[in-house]
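User: quick one - fold this with S-adenosylmethionine bound?
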Amino acid sequence: MGTEADNGQIHIPVLLRECIEFLAPHAGGVYVDGTLGLGGHTREILSQSAPDGRVVAFEWDENALYHNQGTLREYRERLTIIRRNFAEIDEGLKEAEVEKIDGLMIDVGLSSLQLDYGERGFSFQRDAALDMRMDSRNEVSAQSILASATEQELADIFFYYGGEKQARPIALAIVENRKKERIETTKQLVLIVAHAIPKRFHPKKIHVATKVFQALRIAVNTELENLSRIIDNGVKYLKPGARFCVISFHSLEDKIVKRKFKNNEQLEVITTKPVVPGLEEVAANSRARSARLRVAEKR
Ligand SMILES: C[S@@+](CC[C@H](N)C(=O)[O-])C[C@H]1O[C@@H](n2cnc3c(N)ncnc32)[C@H](O)[C@@H]1O
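Assistant: Sure. Structure tokens for the protein plus S-adenosylmethionine:
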């Protein structure tokens, strides 16, 4: 089952069955989906909580919001969409006039709409402006970071957010190149990275610029900070027994979720090990490959 985006691509919700089983939506319940995307999880929560369950969904990408106007129309009376960063859950729930909730989920990262639309600059596969903002209202873009961060800041971004061992030579190459011309396109960045890393260190299984692109995206969208903030701020809204489900896609995120769930005295961890997709799901949806679901319950 998938949701067709405007460009004809399908976004298949990841770990949908597992996530819904843990959330166990019921009639009359109020749920928060922090990452509406193309509405895959929200639709299922609304369907399972019929006839009067409610979802408050956060989404900061206007393209996704535009898309959902049509596809979620049938649920519009039970769905409140908030165009905000999910880290601003306090403000969002105030706007939605919701005080307590029966479950909270987030499915971080990019939707197919963002990934497959080359023009947003998320992918090194297509030449495009280096934007990478999920929320076009934000001031910081990949271009602005590449233009203004110091060599040390760039190296830290690539090393800590991308795990890129060649972070230093890449940062130096960016600083040298930007003296000659502004780094504005994905193609320019790919070439700079490919030249900065000695051939013998080029990775065999992934594209040479994969880690740099991932790191920049995390920095542009302050992804790790947002994740920490929603866990810190979201727990107080959960009713006793309500579940908090997080689907993440790389180890930096998963570490934050694991640590924050474990250290929060108001939460009991339900998944001691992360739930991962089965072989069948991965075969049907390559985006699910690295997904990990962790669940905690409010005491
Ligand atoms: C992986 S997709 C969610 C897919 C969705 N569960 C579905 O099945 O269609 C993640 C979505 O969350 C949005 N997003 C990511 N971080 C966000 C944040 N901090 N605040 C609001 N939306 C965010 C992205 O714009 C993207 O549309």
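One thing worth noting: The radius of gyration is 20 Å.
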